[in-house]
# Entry
Amino acid sequence: LHFFSPVDKMPLVEIICGEKTSPAALAQAFDYVIKIKKTPIVVNDSRGFFTSRVFGTYCYEGVAMLGEGYPAASIEQAAAQAGMPIGPLAVMDEVNLELGRKVRVQTRIDLEAEGKIYPSHPAEIVIDRMCDEFKRPGKKEGVGFYDYPQGGKKSLWHGLQACFAHADLAQPTPEQFTEMMDRLLFRQSIEAARCFEEDVLRSVADANIGSIFGIGMAPWTGGQLQFINYIGLNTFIERAEVLTQRYGDRFTPPEILKRMAKRGEIFE
# Structure
């Protein structure tokens, strides 16, 4: 069972099924989650499960924008205007950059041991600089992307502008700002579609419920797969392909989307 923090406020529990999980064990877990008045979703075991895997894409995309030179305040504002409850930089501080880096190192080791290639991400350069060069690993230490004064209100670290800002992006245009919002939402939905394609997810409903109640996906979207329906599969694919050309393979639309679009299907 995967609970979410803070446990007393987060309504979701992710039930993880392994290869040898029996129907009886699953039923018992499901009943337990209902009894403690939480909302269950059921996913198959895989690296990062569903929620952590997808939520990480949101955080990393925001950090990548910082590395490209976008102002930190614009990144957090783009997330807010897209409907996300907390900005990606604030989330990274909560999780802790150093902890995330340790997970990344272990993931690379595990994938290479399996004969697989670790997909590096531009956000990693920013995270490494924050930890090694600036010694700002996150909220627990009182310094991360934000400053956390004792007894005071958090605020974005003023040094971010000098360390990462690009003069040409100091004031994002309306088109650039819209693209920032698209990147934060599309990246999550693309990864959710991959989870569905790989049978990590067992149902469309679990994807949508889990993404809103567990991850905080913008409620107006109806969830990560419903967002694709809302945009329209063909339009979503076209936009994802544009983002792929500009920002890399992480935006490549999964084959399942192309097959569904060809058959006129939606996620339901």
